[in-house]
Amino acid sequence: MPFEAVDNLGPSLMFDYLVNTDTWTCSEGIRALYGVAEGQPVKTAHMLARIVAEDRDTIFGMFQRTLQTPGPFSCEFRICDPRGTIHHVVLAGESRAAPGQVERVQGFMVDITNSVRQGAAEAVEASAEHRAVIEQAKGAIMATFGMNEAAAFAVLQRFSQNHNIKLRDLAARVVSDGVCGSEDDVTRIRQMFSGTPA
Q1: DSSP code for 10
Q2: Residue 102 is part of which domain span?
Q3: How far is CA 182 from the centre of its chain?
């Protein structure tokens, strides 16, 4: 499956997979994480090889299900980057179907290595006065993408850090957009976190 680079999207880790052409487009951040040079085509085997062996079969199975059933999805797994560093990541996205079959899979990845393991509890405590809206936003992301609480918080926290938006303001935006799992809501939250149109 050839990969094509997209414009530099800063810290974003975004991807777009077109099923009928078997073509992946991914941000510079994903290319760096997987050790793929700009313009270098990559086979799926290369991508799978970067996933930690204990997670590989699970992720491949999830990908196969995503190609069969349209809708939002998420998963958490580990990648070994070219320097040998293990990264804990959350992948979230949506598979879209034309009548009868999935034709496109779009989404984003968040490196939660430090966020979940070290900072999540402290950040929630520091945001005690804003806890209700943060909890609501976590719940919306959990419901939309089917991810666990820690992963949903890590997505919020990383997006907040990468875009210099206060966590409470980001949470309020997620809640005010009414994200609750409908197809339109899934599209809105994907756009919010990826910065791209549907």
Answers
A1: T
A2: 3-111
A3: 18
